[in-house]
Amino acid sequence: MADADVQNLLAEYNKLSNDDRTRFNGLIAQPSLGSQPSQIVVDYAWRAVISVFVVVFILASLAIIASIWIAPFAGAPGKPETLITIFSTSVGFLAGVLTPSPVGQANRPKT
User: Fold this and answer.
1) 22 has pLDDT over 70
2) 50-75 tens-digit pLDDT
3) Backbone angles phi, psi at 78, to 5 degrees
4) How far apart are CA 25 and CA 48, in angstroms?
5) CA 1 vs CA 4, 7, 64: distances in Å
6) In this structure, what DSSP letter does residue 77 have?
7) How far are the Cα atoms of 22, 27, 34, 55, 110 from residue 31, in angstroms, in the given order?
């Protein structure tokens, strides 16, 4: 943008009343429509992610229990290390989701 264009824009801006300037500044400060997903989409995505981790947590818990109780009877060595890793990862994720943010509620957008 050339300096003359900037000067013309500033001159037109200075002609605006205070109310019009406030409205204009508010329009410029807002993100464009469609730049962020709606709250419904964000809520659905979080529900989907958390639901998957809850299912993994439950299945890993059942698999650990089964490997501890059933494996010795089947003659197979009980080595649940992989299952314990999956279990502890899902527990850690769910604990992180449920822990309040250290930043607090001040930075959350109002819905």
Assistant:
1) yes
2) 899 899 889 888 888 887 777 667 66
3) -85, 110
4) 38
5) 8, 10, 65
6) -
7) 16, 8, 8, 36, 15
In degrees, rounded to 5, the angle at the alpha carbon of residue 80 between the alpha carbons of residues 91 and 67 is: 105
Give burial (CB, 10 Å; 0-12/13-18/19+) of 60: buried
What is d(CA 95, CA 43) in angstroms, rounded to the nearest whole number? 18
Query: Residue 84 is encoded by which pair of tokens?
Result: 């314990």
Give the pair of three-digit tokens for residue 58.
């439950």
Q: How many CB atoms lie within 10 A of CB 54?
A: 13
- Angle of helix 39-69 relative to helix 81-98, nearest 10 degrees, comes to 150
Distance CA 38, CA 50 (A): 19
How is residue 105 written in tokens? 């509620």
Amino acid at 56: V
pTM for the full predicted model: 0.51
Tokens 């109780």 correspond to 69
